[in-house]
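Check out one such.
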Amino acid sequence: MLLIRTGGGTMAAPGETRPETASLRNEFALERYRYILQQIHAVNENAHRFLTLYQTLATALVSAALLLFVGYQKWDVAPDTARGGVIGLLVLVTVVAAFTSTLIVVGAMNWLDYRNEECDITDEFVGPAFRKRPRPGNFLRWYETYVLLFILVSVITMWLIAALFLLPAMR
């Protein structure tokens, strides 16, 4: 091995490996692996936070729409204005649902990237196929799929209830 003397000691020539370099490489890989596991955990927690955000905002906005439906006559609000208010609140719920859904989809894509990187590290340092790679085809097993379905069904249900019952009753 060709050693180059530097001011602080010796250094391996480019392309040469020394035990210290391998050890340092392993330490970096271990730290990266820990970071990846931490990010996977954070992505999983974020999906729950996003669902909580949606549920809270949707509940508040739909409650406001129902309150407007119940009290518009008592408050001397014109029916057209009250209908517009209900529609506006449902549009806001839909925007919140779209935003939440986007965050969940992006989180799932990040999760896939982190899991693939985790598999790359374990393939190199532990052995090939130590961890199975994630398959997007398994989306029916992912809780994010059902959170997205819940959001979609709840928004459709809110619009149907408003269109079939609330808006026609506001005359």
In short: The chain has three helices and two strands. Confidence is low (pLDDT under 50) at residues 1-7. The radius of gyration is 27 Å. Helices lie at 19-71, 79-125, 143-169.
